[in-house]
Amino acid sequence: MKKLKFRIEYILLLISILNFAATVCFKSMSQNNFILTESKLSLLKDREEAVEDLKNDFWTLTYFDRGLELQLEKIIEVKSNA
Asked: I need a surface site. Which of 59, 60, 73, 75 has the fewest CB within 10 A?
């Protein structure tokens, strides 16, 4: 009976596979978020609540950056008036 040897290559290969799987998962999640955000932007003209929904969705991204928050407000204003 052969003794199983753990080689550094196997460990690195396993880490690479796990990294690839996590990347695919997070990419899929971010694509879904972009699609959802785009649909909310397209509904901005129809509903006033959509503006608040968008601000709540982007709150985590704009909390520490006033410039991004101002850009979001400009985008919302342009989309609302279009």
From this structure: 60
Cβ contacts of 40 within 8 Å, gap of 6 or more = 50, 53, 54, 57
Give residue-wise pLDDT tens across range 3-40: 666 788 888 999 999 999 999 999 998 888 878 877 77
* DSSP, residue by residue, 9-71: HHHHHHHHHHHHHHHHHHHHHHHHHHHHHHHHHHTTTT-SHHHHHHHHHTHHHHTT-HHHHHH
Length of the chain: 82
Per-residue pLDDT tens over the stretch 38-62: 777 777 666 666 777 777 777 777 7
Dihedrals phi, psi of 55, to nearest 5 degrees: -60, -40
Residue 78 three-state SS? helix
